[in-house]
Amino acid sequence: MEVAVRLDPAGSLAEQIYRQLRDAVLDGRLRREEALPSSRDLAGQLKVSRNTVTAAYERLIAEGYLVGRGGAGTFVNAMPVALPDAPQLPSGSLVPRAVWPRMPIPPDYSETPEFDFRVGAPDTRLFPYTAWRRLLTSQFRQSAVGTGMPVEPAGHLGLRTLLAGHLRTARTIETHPRDVLITSGAQQALDLIGRVLLEPGATAVVEEPGYAPPKLVWEAQGATVIGVPVDEQGLIVEALPPGARVVYVTPSHQYPTGVAMTLRRRVELLAWAQRHDAAIVEDDYDSEFRYTEQQLEPLHSLDRSGRVLYIGSFSKVLLPTLRLGYLIHPTSLRHALHAAKFLADWHTSLPPQAAMADFLAQGLYARHLRRVRRVYRQRHDRITAALAGPLAAHLTVVPSSAGLHLSALPRGAPTDDVLTRARAAGLGLASYPEIAAAAPGQPGIVLGYGMIDAHRITEGLTRLRQCLDAC
Ligand SMILES: Cc1ncc(COP(=O)(O)O)c(C=O)c1O
């Protein structure tokens, strides 16, 4: 990398190089793991002797700011102690559309609680790094990344074909690869659906409590979004407003309660959508993790009138930072969705799509799933056993046999009191309103087990019990 060092011929040159590089590390201009120029290159750039630069580097290495890695070079080794000062630029008087100031930006997730029951992420330690390194490397051979011209907006055809096959066997979903659209996560599928189906002012429905992004995305696009309550059978179909154009649901594992929508409700919802000429968005975000033989058919498989849009994501099975998801859509929407995808970002980054196709084709996805399912099942069973045993006097569990989280309702104490004590005891738990669109104060705590080891679960839940005893 280029390092801006200015030298005053009057002072010690090695000292000045040392100080300026040290300050750059401390204020974050040079970031951890960044490579420095070789001493020869920096000496040439600054027109000083190589010994001068070597002396500065040696001191920075001795003090821990840099690290030398044999033939690989010299790298930044320390974290900044402060953010770099903001440059003095005018802040401007431009104003965004009225909707944007109330749209949230995700919080900083960098602080890990002692007992990490946070919801939303899988265990990154389980990601198959070696296989993905190999697959991505092979995609970055010139022949594999295409002609340099953009590819179809719907994405890598091999991946779409393999996904159609996978969904047929794993989820009884019948689709054609032409109706599989690869997206940058489930998030982009929601965005495209809103663009294609919701006129400004149109009504859309989300679950309440429910996953916040569909509400936010569609409101930002100008729709009116209404929350419809969920009970122990899933979305209450009777409560749907008649004019809704789009209804968003998470039937396999309702977010955040964990309830599975009953077959009866599924059939009622499809019948309702047909009567009202509405679309259903089925978000099947974590259904690859099921801990029971009993499987309810997705709405997409039950649909006889082509009104279900089925969203899947690799965020839970692999990594959320891959930003890979997909949308199975009715053929009638193909042109509009491809055009919307093209306008949004032309197509999702090709090399990860192609690597994902190889991952599926070589049987590595199935193997990975078997492995991670075993791990998460153990965690799920451990939490369920504790909730049915030592914690049963304090918490009513919402039955759930899928996904990476489950929820429970505190019996005696208010949810907020439980959470305050639990957090003070090092537990990373959340209430419904904190992680979902929900009425303020709605009772219910959510326990995620994507990130916590099974052996930590037992200790964490013992602490939770102590907190509940004290409430
Ligand atoms: C309900 C729900 N849908 C979808 C996703 C995945 O979203 P994405 O694929 O955009 O990462 C999540 C992730 O937490 C989720 O909770």
TrEMBL record:
Example of a GO MF term: DNA binding
InterPro entries linked: Aminotransferase_I/II_large, HTH_trans_reg/aminotransferase, PyrdxlP-dep_Trfase, PyrdxlP-dep_Trfase_major, Tscrpt_reg_HTH_GntR, WH-like_DNA-bd_sf, WH_DNA-bd_sf
Keywords: Aminotransferase, DNA-binding, Pyridoxal phosphate, Transcription, Transcription regulation, Transferase
Domain HTH gntR-type residue range list: 11-79
PROSITE patterns attached to this UniProt entry: HTH_GNTR
Keyword Lipid biosynthesis annotated: no
Transmembrane helix as UniProt keyword: no
Family to which the UniProt record says this protein belongs: In the C-terminal section; belongs to the class-I pyridoxal-phosphate-dependent aminotransferase family.
Protein name: GntR family transcriptional regulator/MocR family aminotransferase
UniProt source species: Paractinoplanes abujensis
